[in-house]
Automatic annotation (TrEMBL):
Record flagged with keyword DNA-binding: no
Matching InterPro entries: PRib_PP_synth_CS (IPR000842), Pribosyltran_N (IPR029099), PRTase-like (IPR029057), PRTase_dom (IPR000836), Rib-P_diPkinase (IPR005946)
Name of protein: ribose-phosphate diphosphokinase
Every Ribose-phosphate pyrophosphokinase N-terminal domain range: 8-122
PANTHER family for this protein: RIBOSE-PHOSPHATE DIPHOSPHOKINASE FAMILY MEMBER, RIBOSE-PHOSPHATE PYROPHOSPHOKINASE 1, CHLOROPLASTIC
EC identifiers of the protein: 2.7.6.1
GO cellular component assignments: cytoplasm; ribose phosphate diphosphokinase complex
Amino acid sequence: MAFEPTPKIFACKQSQALAKDIADKYGIPLGNIITSTYSDGEFQPSFEESVRGCRVFLIGSTHPSSDHLMELLLMCDAAKRASARHITAVMPYFGWARQDRKDKPRVPIAAKLIAKMLETAGATRIITMDLHADQIQGFFEKPVDHLFASTIFLPYLKSLNLPNLTIASPDMGGSKRAYAYSKAMESDVVICYKQREKANIISHMELIGDVKGKNVVLVDDMVDTAGTLTKAADLMMERGALSVRAICTHPILSGKAYERLEASKLEELIVTDSIPLRQTSPKLRVLTCADLFADVMKSVHVNQSISSKFLM
């Protein structure tokens, strides 16, 4: 068997804490990388150790600002030019994924563009979690390992032992995810139907299904301004729900999200650490995804199956 050197793990600035936890779980230290910044904001990452012939894991979520995506692209390019053998972009949160199609004339398909940019920069594999749209995997010509945070959330949800549990989707687009959770929990499903005036602004919301006397758990891939989640939670409590919790993989929590969360009837918002939080809240519970990524990265390195990580 050909010699396979020890892999190396490097972190983008925005994912330093998560990358440190992943490296600890993997059992190797984070690699040394230095980023130089010019006075106008331009920056240049530099690997301070050899990566020649190595499998390199570059960990970085690409939530705004766009500097986060740019840093990951520059690190891919640097690793390629330093003769790394494999360059795996580990993106716990794949940003710009809401632009996965043309929903009106004369708009970009940003997710497709980013896929091409990553491949051009040198990424030979992508590992990500809970894409906003599953079809984004098809935008790549390189292997994509699309992990599901259900492997993290379901054990916690089962530990709550909630009676009369009902899984809910905050919109029609998330119904597939809600049905998968309901199958695992052997529970009912309800769906929220919403109409938007424009991005992040909801004009009307209705509930499809009965929540009276139920403990409801809303399931979604991300929470941005928290407008949809909090409106759905308040609506369900008005319709007789005993309690409403929410599971959201990626805690973007922009704008007035924290204020909405505190003022809402949500009992708990359960998220992962795919994106670092801007601030804390007594209603927030963070479950780490470090173990999941470390396990998958180990399997990828030694060419083992990762199918056991796919519960949905």
